[in-house]
Design brief:
Blueprint: H1 29-35, H2 38-54, H3 68-71, H4 76-86, H5 99-104, E1 111-114, H6 124-136, E2 143-146, H7 154-159, H8 163-173, H9 176-184
Parallel strand pairs: 1-2
Helix pairs in contact: 2-4, 6-8
Amino acid sequence: MILDGDRPVLDPAKIPGLVDDNGFLLQDGREIRKRLKPDEVFNEFSAQIEAIQKRGVRISHLDSHRGFCFLIPKLWSVYRELGRKYTVPLALPKNFMFNKTRKQVPGSTDSLIGVYDLKEEENVDNRYNAYDRMLARLGAGTHYCFSHPSPPTRSVQDSFGDFQIRADDYALFLSPEWSELLKKHGITLSSFRK
């Protein structure tokens, strides 16, 4: 679900707290926090979910771009209610504050983690090492690991400032080393749905 910088599904007049003067979702996180109204977010996110379902796509879980649904406390109940309404698990951070939500929305994750910016030089070997450290800390349970893999095409390079991160994730995930890393840590990839 996206709350920032894109065209909304609903008519902008129905969600005035979420859009700019041109009818696009606000871009700036501080402005979003200041202006958002939970009922408008619930309605826009419901419209986004239903638009995807109408295309025949099975939704395995819900997540929010830039983590707005779990970083902004007044959206916590919105996120939980969307999971309940559509009976779809939620990607949730490992934090005791979300334990009640995990119980109310079956199948929701035990943690939400990822590797984005590296402290070391950006390259495939260093990304491998960062994922190795991350996977070693997971433990048993259902975890949502986010990433941004993209093929190293000219259009991706022209569109994304974090092109190298995306290209290195893409290369790593297609490598035999990635499969071996998952085996090493006993990780099974699966859908959120039971």
